[in-house]
Amino acid sequence: MKHWKKILSAIVVLAVAVVVAGVAIIKSLDFNEYRGLIAEQVKAATGRDLTINGKLNLELSLIPAVSVEGVTFANTAWGSRKEMATLKKFAAEVELLPLLSGDIRVKRLVLVGLDLLAETDAQGRGNWVLGSADQKTQKAESKSSGLLPVVQKVRIEDLTVTYKDGRSGQKTALHIDTLDLQTDGLGAPMTVGLSGNLNGNALQAKGQLGPLDVLLKGGKPYPITLTLTAPGVSMDVAGTIAEPRKGRGINLKLSVDGKDLAATAKAAGVVLATLPPVTFSLVLTDPEGAYQLAGLDAKIGGSDLKGRVTVKLTGASPSINADLSSALLDLDSLLPKQSGAAKAPAKKDSKRVFPSSALPVDGLKAVDAKIRLKANRIITGGIAVEDLNLNLTLGAGRLEIKPLAAVISSGKVNATIVVDGSRSPVALSVNLDAQKIDFGALLKQLKLTDIATGNVDAKIDLKGQGASVAAIMAGLNGRARIVTEGGKIDSGVLNVVSSDIIAALPFVDSKGDKQIRCGVIDFEFRTGQAKVKSLVFETGGLSMIGTGGINLADETIDIKINPRAKKVSLLQLAMLPVNVGGTLASPSALPDVGGAAIGAVTGAVSTTKDIASGGLSAIGNLVGVGGNKSGASIDETDYCKAALAGQTVVRSKAKPKPASTSTSSTPPPPGQPSGSMIDKIDKKADEIGKGIDGALKGLFGK
To answer: CB atoms < 10 A from the CB of 600, how many?
Structure first.
């Protein structure tokens, strides 16, 4: 036993002596002499120069530490700066005893002052693509299992990663003040904590990542649980990636709370219009090489969107397949508001409505899409669209929207729209059928109240082709027909030919003058010429018949509207034909009479005094009708019958007014209007006169 004790003691002494001698030898070595050797090995492996300007230090203890300072790694020859990376300090603490069994355990690793530049050139090549001196050696090394060190703690300070796009010149900079990673081993999860900024905007992250050996070797799903916070937005990510090194097998749930996405976009170097707060959640997966957003549930202000979106990047062109639904989409609050300057047309297009610029056909060919959208309510341009059912298909440059069904102001709308950019020139087809649209309610939504009420039907079937909108319109063919029956005029738009002035006179019957018997706008389109087939508006006391058309090639208007009295009344005062001319961008509407008649309508005071003092003959002498003139007439033709039947409408020859209605210079019988009534008539007529110009401008967009 004594011998064994002596032998064991000798072994211990010998081991200690060897360790002491080893430590002494190691301490006597100058590791700085190996800087050149290290640089040579890096050069051979990467083709780039590595320079160690500082010292290589080794501190021996039960936890040895190695450190290096002032390291630079060269950029590629075409890079925008000499160094791809610079490092102020690298330090690592290694546990000594596990080294005896070949187990490398890094207790703590510190990286300070790393400045890394990742950039591409004009051809899209990255500076991170490194050269290789011996590919066979690399392949052999990749097959060898090797020993992965266990790093328990990683501390990164003052790290800057800059990405520069050589094509666009756009630069993105990520600066990390501190990044802490901590794990108990290769098979243990990693805790993450990050604080820094993106393009100068604060950025934070915290959470847990999967084990390092799973990340490097694979074999089972890699778990991720992170919370990211950036200006205006916070995001939670939870789930797994089956093959993290290949980026496949994604199954992540994302939840985003975007209080100010404009600030978020600005942090990423993108200008974005101000949006209402946004919240959404979804599950991101990648089935069969695509990316799928399943269970999408988004809320933007008061709007919402639910459904599924699949994006496939493989194939001849990217494709999007979406099935979406919404209770409310308020596009008026979501889309950016245009400033006055933005609304103003450019000088070169100021005289035309249809742009002559080439259609973006390449945009139609850039992506394939199948989108289905069902929405209970959409608000756009102040109009509420309900029960929307839309199916959009885009492939090889051909866009088809079929069906497009919706309810607008209690009326049903069905449409099919095709834009075929797969051929040259581009072909356009529009087919729309609208039934029983309540235009009174529609006008109220547009805040144009007190005009008219009733229902309207519309049928539009148009086709054209061309390289621009202007070219398509110049060759447009088809028909557009709008019909209303049984409505009512509620405003002064047509009061000059309706009932306000008549209602002010006790000796004139105006019954039915505000009732709309029919309104028909029927245009036939032949190679860009829109010819009036029927243009009729008829009340109980008035018929208005339009003739002429619109040249869509040069956008000129040539329409004449002829009002005709259906009964004997002072309505004859307003029987003034109106010539609608000019262009679509700048229309005009002028009465087709001489200055005397215009004065009769707008000079209301003198006219109504003549009514009270001299009877109707005074007015007749002034405007050229009635009195001793023989030109006064009425027109009892039922223009609605022909217009509603789809026939071409022309004016009939008016019948002379009955003799019993002729006027004379004899004053009206007792009961004629008193002085106060004359004042009332004066005031009403004056209002009507002033309103003519505004009404015409309102009707024709000026």
So the answer is: 22
